[in-house]
Design a protein that fits this description.
This protein has 6 helices and no strands. It is an all-alpha fold. It has one domain (2-124): Tetracycline Repressor, domain 2 (Orthogonal Bundle). The model has no long low-confidence stretch (mean pLDDT 87).
């Protein structure tokens, strides 16, 4: 049961990446996706563990994570960050952001998300 709920969350992130991919500005598309992913992960305990682990409990969850890596890689390809960042590494970075945001009191998490994503956007694509 838990695996199916978490797989559903991964599929929601795949959909969010697809929606973000339609945004005309590549950097904003990436930030929009990361904001959605952060909010999703904060609302679904256990999702961070699924994203960061290399071993999956089911084959369908493994496939879904592969699709998510492809989707995030597509977002990154549009931004062309320097230094280069893979979709898999972006998901690991996302897990760090989830942890950092979750350390803030609930009423300050929105501001923390904005601050961290601003720093990340500036660091990934300083020319944008």
């Amino acid at each position: 049961m838990r695996e199916s709920v978490l797989e559903e969350s991964v599929r929601e992130l795949i959909d969010a990446a697809a929606v973000a991919g339609g945004h005309p500005d590549p950097a904003n598309a990436l930030v929009d996706f990361l904001r959605t992913a952060l909010l999703t992960a904060l609302a679904r305990p256990g999702l961070t563990d699924v994203l960061i682990t290399g071993s999956d409990e089911t084959e369908s969850l493994h496939r879904a994570k592969g699709e998510l890596v492809e989707a995030t890689s597509g977002l990154l390809a549009r931004v062309r960050p320097a230094p280069a960042l893979t979709g898999e590494n972006l998901l690991k970075l996302l897990c760090g952001l989830i942890h950092a945001v979750s350390e803030h009191p609930a009423e300050r998490q929105g501001a923390a998300i904005d601050n961290y994503l601003g720093i990340l956007r500036a660091g990934l694509a300083p020319a944008l």
